[in-house]
Amino acid sequence: MASFKFLLVSLIVLLCCFMPSFTTAETPPTTPGGFVPIPDVNATEIVSLANFAVGEHKRLSSEDLTLLRVVQGWSQVVAG
């Protein structure tokens, strides 16, 4: 019975030692200059930027453009 308790305690201690490495999910580091997806393209800031871009293109090209929706976006990570 004593060896069973020792084995059980040893197993619990061993699991507790390795548990943090299984539970922490680290995000991979982004490469400077690389692109990462924008998680929420419906955010007010993103839609405002898209409206500005469409407005400027409309102004410079004299085309009748209207922003309907933002489907996807990417952000560039720069060093510095």
Automatic annotation (TrEMBL):
Keyword Flavoprotein among UniProt keywords: no
Signal peptide stretch: 1-25
Taxonomy, superkingdom: Eukaryota
Domain Cystatin residues, every copy: 38-80
Record-linked InterPro entries: Cystatin_dom (IPR000010), Cystatin_sf (IPR046350)
Record key words, sorted: Protease inhibitor, Signal, Thiol protease inhibitor
Transmembrane region(s): none
UniProt cross-references to Gene3D superfamilies, sorted A to Z: 3.10.450.10
Pfam families: SQAPI
Molecular function terms from GO: cysteine-type endopeptidase inhibitor activity
PANTHER family: CYSTEINE PROTEINASE INHIBITOR 5
Protein name (Swiss-Prot/TrEMBL): Cystatin domain-containing protein
Annotated organism of origin: Kalanchoe fedtschenkoi
